[in-house]
Amino acid sequence: MMPPDWRPPTLTTERLVLRPFEEADAPALFPLAANPRVTRFTLWEHHRTLDDTLVFVRDYAQSRYMEGTPEPYAITLKDDPAGLPVGAVGCFWASRPNAAMELGYWLAEPYWGRGLTAEACRAVVAEAFATCHPERVQARVIAGNGPSRRVLDKLGFRYEGALRSALFRRGRYEDVLYYSILRPEWPM
Ligand SMILES: CC(C)(COP(=O)(O)OP(=O)(O)OC[C@H]1O[C@@H](n2cnc3c(N)ncnc32)[C@H](O)[C@@H]1OP(=O)(O)O)[C@@H](O)C(=O)NCCC(=O)NCCS
After folding, report:
1. Residues whose CB is less than 8 angstroms from the CB of residue 34 and which lie 6 or more positions away in sequence, other chains included
2. Which of 7, 49, 88, 110 shows the greatest Cβ crowding within 10 Å of its Cβ?
3. pLDDT digit string (tens) for 111-166?
């Protein structure tokens, strides 16, 4: 357990500042997380009330920070002086005894197609390898999410295969595609 006020360190990339979430982020994040096109292939449902967003930025974030994991990070743009969140990215433990972490990410729709998610993920996976020492970082993609597969390709993750009809979501069974990168394969 980490001290209750522990926060993951802020990370800076060419175009982004990745920083821990704060309760005050909820009003800016809510309309972005309320977009059903963002959650078309996610395990979480689009936010319906500001309270859904508050639970994420305050309660969920706090519980992960207490584990000392770099998850969730607010994705903010360097050229926004207000530093408002435009998405979330992070690495959390999938299985601590097996030293396996999982990468997750989403970006608000107006920012898609600029390579920002890969840029954010590169920094967060590097931070996870450096500070949490996983042997494996995996990512799970619901079949049909081509843009997410592209992000993982760009990061050098390897496609491992599909668990067929492994997820019952929104009234139907979905194939779940597994990707991973192992510690010796990470370029840093
Ligand atoms: C998946 C997602 C994170 C990709 O982020 P991104 O920053 O747009 O990623 P990139 O800019 O690197 O683009 C990746 C691919 O998306 C596709 N893409 C590009 N512009 C797009 C647009 N305007 N709309 C939809 N897809 C687009 C392209 O196939 C692109 O590949 P390319 O760079 O080889 O052309 C983003 O679309 C998203 O947040 N989606 C909703 C949440 C989600 O599905 N998260 C992942 C769950 S596993």
Report:
1. 46, 47, 48
2. 88
3. 999 999 999 999 999 999 999 999 999 999 999 999 999 999 999 999 999 999 99
Enumerate the β-bridge partners of residue 74.
19, 88
Helices (H), 66-165: 116-132, 146-155
Q: Could you report the per-residue pLDDT of 139-151, keeping only the tens digit for each?
A: 999 999 999 999 9
The closest-lying atom of ligand 1 relative to the alpha carbon of residue 116 is 7
How far is ligand 1, taken at its centre, from the CA of residue 38, in Å?
10
Query: Which residues form ligand 1's pocket by a CB distance below 6 Å?
Result: 38, 41-42, 105-107, 112-118, 141, 145-148, 150-151
Rounded distance, CA 55 to CA 29, Å? 12
Among all chains, which residue has been given the structure tokens 């821990």? Answer: 20
Domains and CATH numbers, the chain: 11-185 (3.40.630.30)
Could you give the residue ranges of the DSSP H alpha helices within 6-115?
A: 26-33, 50-54, 61-65
CB 124 within 8 A of CB 134: no
Distance CA 140, CA 60 (A): 20
State the DSSP code for 157.
P
Cα–Cα distance measured from residue 81 to residue 58, given in angstroms and rounded to the nearest whole number: 23
Query: Is the pLDDT score of 188 beyond 70?
Result: no
C-alpha torsion angle, residues 63, 65, 66, 69 (rounded to 10): 110
